[in-house]
Amino acid sequence: MPIERAASGPRIYLAGFDVFRRDAKEHGEHLKQLCRDHGFVGLYPLNGQVPSSLQRQDTARWIYAANIELIRSADIVMANLDDFRGSGEPDSGTAFEVGFAAALGKPVWAYRSTEETLVERAKAAAIGAEGGFCAGGYLIGNFGPSVNLMLACSAQLVVGRPGACLDAMRREVEEGAPCVGGLGLAKR
Fold first, then answer.
1. Cα dihedral sign for 149, 155, 158, 162?
2. pLDDT of residue 64
3. Is the pLDDT of residue 27 over 60?
4. How many structural domains does the chain have?
5. Residue 27 belongs to domain with CATH number
6. Which of 20, 28, 125, 146 is deepest in the core (most CB within 10 A)?
7. Is 73 among the domain residues?
8. Rg, the chain, Cα only
9. Beta strand 41-43 with 139-141: parallel, antiparallel or unpaired?
10. What's the first-to-final CA gap in the chain, in angstroms?
11. 185 phi and psi, to 5 degrees?
12. For residues 134 and 88, is the Cβ–Cβ distance under 8 A?
């Protein structure tokens, strides 16, 4: 394995709700090819075969363990933080994976298709200096990024699609070590 690692590019765990697409396997192959085109090795969570003999709860635990192991084996995590199943928030599983990678000290890169702020995207009823309030009456922090500050501060955010994020990552790798995170938003 160490020889294989040295011979290949950095390994990128491809976090995101893309695994729920109808064409998840094909899309995963597309993302892995984009990684190869940029000199990286893409690790898509659907790579493993879930044993068919498992019950639903055991299947969930198996998938969790497999994804955790993939994140541990990755050098970098790239996450799709676009809105999922509603306006204003990315997929909760992806948010967990970003947090887990950050806790491991791994560089995290994320892409979003918009640079609108979280307050703008969550359709705040009233916006003040401290932020806005959602329909449920909860404060939406007005810190500027397009995602919650815990995600924005743990990842380098790129406006664009996966290829744009990989372009930015490639530039960072060529200049030295990839950025671990920050509140900045890179337009690529």
1. negative
2. 94
3. yes
4. 1
5. 3.40.50.450
6. 146
7. yes
8. 17
9. unpaired
10. 34
11. -130, 115
12. yes
Angle between helices 24-37 and 162-175 (to 10 degrees): 30
Query: By residue range, what is the domain housing residue 60?
Result: 2-111+148-181
User: Which tokens go with 15?
Assistant: 């976090």
Token pair recorded at residue 101 = 């990678």
Residue pair 112/147 in contact (Cβ under 8 Å)? The answer is yes
Pair of tokens at residue 8: 């290949």
Q: Is the pLDDT of residue 91 over 70?
A: yes
pLDDT at 125: 57
**pLDDT confidence of residue 183:** 39
For residue 166, being part of any structural domain is answered with yes
The residues with which 73 forms a beta bridge, in sequence order, are none
User: Is 90 exceeded by the pLDDT of residue 146?
Assistant: no
In a domain, 156, yes or no: yes
Q: Specify whether the CB–CB gap between 52 and 35 falls below 8 A.
A: no
Which strands form 41-43's sheet, in the order they lie side by side?
Answer: 41-43, 11-15, 76-80, 108-112, 156-159, 185-187
Give all strands (DSSP E) within the chain, no chain letters. Answer: 11-15, 41-43, 76-80, 108-112, 127-128, 131-133, 139-141, 156-159, 185-187
**β-sheet bridge partners, residue 110:** 79, 157
Q: Tell me, yes or no, whether 135 lies in a domain.
A: no
- Find the length of the chain: 188
Extract the tokens encoding 148.
């919650």
